[in-house]
């Protein structure tokens, strides 16, 4: 019992945020339930982002009913690569990534050859709500397949690495690079076996990595070091993350972004209940940082001042940078 108490006190002193505190002090406090559909439905998120001039993967088409599945051929046209995903999916489930055509069939990102009928069957499963939050009926979107920037070639296995930034009231507080592995099936989802790598908010330089709750320094598939990598256009990522507060109105969110080799930083999706493993990757707790932002907000409110996204980024980088 004493050992448990000492461990808890040590974590508290380090500012480690637990799930109960996240839910009570941040998710419930800053996220209005009426605004959840904006982030829980990827189509709504994408439409709002486009209206706000924020870059997202291009939307090719939406399929809402079984009858509309017949539109698939028209939607994809002559494209050889695209992504099919549920609008209300979570954890990467239900996403089908087509990387190429093979005669009359298609090749997935993992190299599996599938037919047009199999893609239609996947869409039908999405519509029934198989992958949606709560199992409710869903819509399928077909969109542009992101081509990762070449900087990730040596530290990622297939798939598309993404960058998760936790944002409180428009202030970025912590960032993590998520790298696909063979075990994760090329998906950048930690619970499926992807790697989480901390990122210095000030510079965009990668820190240490965590994989299956173990601290690592090298990618298990490529054997290349995951730390010390300079992410390009980092200030652009930070500004993009900060702007998502105005985009959705939710005060505590996880912003997932990707770096496309041709189109630069793109918003992938927003999460109203971001996980806490980002603390392990950064060897740092969230609580001290979120409390510092709340103190900043109190000071600004007393002065009757609101900061722009650029000012919020500058504040966060100055206070939370590792280097």
UniProtKB/TrEMBL annotation:
InterPro entries per the UniProt record, alphabetical: ATP-grasp, ATP_grasp_subdomain_1, RimK-rel_E_lig, RimK-rel_E_lig_ATP-grasp
One annotated GO biological process: SOS response
Gene Ontology CC annotations of this record: cytoplasm
GO molecular function, one term: ATP binding
PROSITE patterns xrefs: ATP_GRASP
Residue ranges occupied by any ATP-grasp domain in the UniProt entry: 46-302
Keywords: ATP-binding, Ligase, Manganese, Nucleotide-binding
Protein name: Alpha-L-glutamate ligase-like protein
Record organism: Pseudomonas graminis
């Amino acid at each position: 019992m004493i050992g448990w108490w000492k461990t808890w006190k040590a974590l508290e002193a380090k500012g480690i945020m637990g799930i109960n505190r996240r839910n009570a002090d941040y998710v419930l406090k800053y996220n209005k339930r009426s605004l959840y559909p904006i982030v829980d439905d990827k189509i709504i998120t994408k439409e709002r982002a486009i209206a706000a001039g924020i870059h997202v993967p291009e939307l090719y088409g939406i399929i809402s009913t079984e009858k509309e599945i017949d539109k698939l051929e028209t939607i994809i046209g002559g494209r050889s690569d695209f992504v099919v995903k549920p609008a209300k999916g979570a954890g990467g489930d239900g996403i089908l990534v087509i990387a190429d055509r093979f005669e009359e069939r298609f090749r997935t990102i993992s190299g599996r050859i599938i037919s047009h009928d199999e893609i239609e069957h996947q869409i039908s499963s999405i519509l029934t709500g198989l992958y949606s939050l709560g199992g409710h009926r869903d819509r399928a979107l077909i969109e542009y397949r992101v081509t990762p920037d070449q900087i990730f070639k040596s530290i990622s296995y297939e798939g598309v690495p993404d960058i998760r930034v936790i944002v409180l009231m428009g202030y970025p507080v912590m960032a993590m690079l998520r790298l696909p592995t063979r075990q994760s099936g090329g998906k950048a989802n930690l619970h499926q076996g992807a790697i989480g790598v901390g990122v210095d908010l000030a510079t965009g330089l990668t820190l240490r990595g965590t994989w299956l709750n173990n601290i690592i320094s090298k990618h298990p598939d490529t054997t290349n070091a995951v730390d010390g990598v300079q992410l390009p256009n980092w200030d652009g990522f930070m500004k993009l993350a900060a702007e998502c507060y105005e985009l959705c109105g939710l005060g505590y969110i996880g912003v997932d972004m990707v770096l496309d080799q041709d189109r630069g930083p793109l918003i992938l999706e927003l999460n109203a209940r971001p996980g806490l493993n980002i603390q392990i990757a950064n060897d740092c707790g969230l609580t001290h940082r979120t409390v510092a932002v709340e103190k900043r907000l109190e000071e600004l409110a007393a002065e009757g001042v609101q900061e722009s996204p650029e000012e919020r980024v500058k504040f966060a980088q100055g206070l939370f940078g590792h280097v």
